[in-house]
């Protein structure tokens, strides 16, 4: 049962344009969402997060949007740069009252390629 | 240490052998997690340690897998009688008090031949 889904295995964009990575979830107990970025032969690194009490969080070129009613979140990168080329993982965590508190559930990842 | 350290970085083993993977978390981080990433797959949760609480072992795929965390710090993931489907990158992460924003190690790439 895939509770966090990233339906696009890959995305290719031109440098300077916007990259939009999407993520859907099914577990209504999830209340905190994170994006991680992973380069080859390295561990994932934290990028940006959002609490369920918000619908948008922005950090420089990165913005995460959360639509709770649709159980959907997205990561926008603008402008995209070649150095952004990596695998992006969406992750979700349950609230403190949930049974899986502390554990992150990850999506399958989306490979982003930004062309110069 | 400054980051999460995993060893070895690569391990090739014969089917049926036992392997041990080690993780040194960030000093002061009370929560430690093991995940694995198989080829073309996402990150699969294996086990979670939080302080002195009983670990959450719900993600371990079979009883061939076990993990321990000694002294609230270093953790060892043991896979007994390895199978080819165990081939994956095994990632360790740590965080403060089991809450938001893990720091991952670089992983151990396990290949079972």
How would you portray this structure in words?
The complex is a heterodimer of chains A (116) and B (113). Chain A is mostly beta strands and 116 residues long. Chain A contains no helices and eleven strands. The radius of gyration of chain A is 14 Å and the shape is globular. The termini of chain A are far apart. The relative contact order of chain A is 0.33. Chain B has 113 residues and is mostly beta strands. Chain B is built from no helices and ten strands. In chain B, the strands form two sheets. In chain B, strands 2, 4, 5, 8, 9 and 10 form a six-stranded mixed sheet that branches. In chain B, strands 1-3-7-6 form a four-stranded antiparallel sheet, with no helix packed on it. In chain B, a hairpin with a 7-residue loop joins β8 and β9. Chain B is globular, with a radius of gyration of 13 Å. The chains are: A mainly beta (116), B mainly beta (113). At the A-B interface, β4, β5, β9 and β10 of A face β4, β5 and β9 of B.
Descriptive labels:
heterodimer, A: 116 residues, mainly beta, 5-stranded antiparallel sheet, globular, B: 113 residues, 0% helix
Tell me the layout of helices and strands.
The complex is a heterodimer of chains A (116) and B (113).
Chain A: E1 4-5, E2 10-14, E3 19-25, E4 30-38, E5 45-51, E6 56-59, E7 62-67, E8 72-77, E9 86-94, E10 104-106, E11 110-115
Parallel strand pairs in A: 2-11
Antiparallel strand pairs in A: 1-3, 3-8, 4-5, 4-9, 6-7, 7-8, 9-10, 9-11
Chain B: E1 5-7, E2 10-13, E3 19-24, E4 31-37, E5 43-50, E6 65-69, E7 75-79, E8 88-95, E9 103-104, E10 108-112
Parallel strand pairs in B: 2-10
Antiparallel strand pairs in B: 1-3, 3-7, 4-5, 4-8, 6-7, 8-9, 8-10
């Amino acid at each position: 049962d895939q509770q966090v889904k990233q339906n696009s295995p890959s995305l290719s964009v031109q440098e300077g344009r916007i990259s939009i990575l999407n993520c859907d979830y099914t577990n209504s107990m999830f209340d905190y969402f994170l994006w991680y970025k992973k380069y080859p032969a390295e561990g994932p690194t934290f990028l940006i997060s959002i609490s369920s009490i918000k619908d948008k969080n922005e950090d420089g070129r990165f913005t995460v949007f959360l639509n709770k009613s649709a159980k959907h979140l997205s990561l926008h990168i603008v402008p995209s740069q070649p150095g952004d080329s990596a695998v992006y993982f969406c992750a979700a965590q349950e609230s403190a009252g949930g049974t899986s508190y502390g554990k992150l559930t990850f999506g399958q990842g989306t490979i982003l390629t930004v062309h110069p | 240490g400054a980051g999460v350290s995993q060893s070895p970085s690569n391990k090739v083993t014969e089917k049926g052998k036992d392997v041990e993977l080690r993780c040194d978390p960030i000093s002061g981080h009370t929560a430690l997690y093991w995940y694995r990433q198989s080829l073309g797959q996402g990150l699969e949760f294996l086990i979670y340690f939080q302080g002195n609480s009983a670990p959450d072992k719900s993600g371990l795929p079979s009883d061939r897998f076990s993990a321990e965390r000694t002294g609230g710090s270093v953790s060892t993931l043991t896979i007994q009688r390895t199978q080819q489907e165990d081939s994956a990158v095994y990632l360790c992460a740590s965080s403060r008090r089991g809450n938001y924003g893990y720091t991952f190690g670089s992983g151990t790439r396990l290949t079972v031949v």
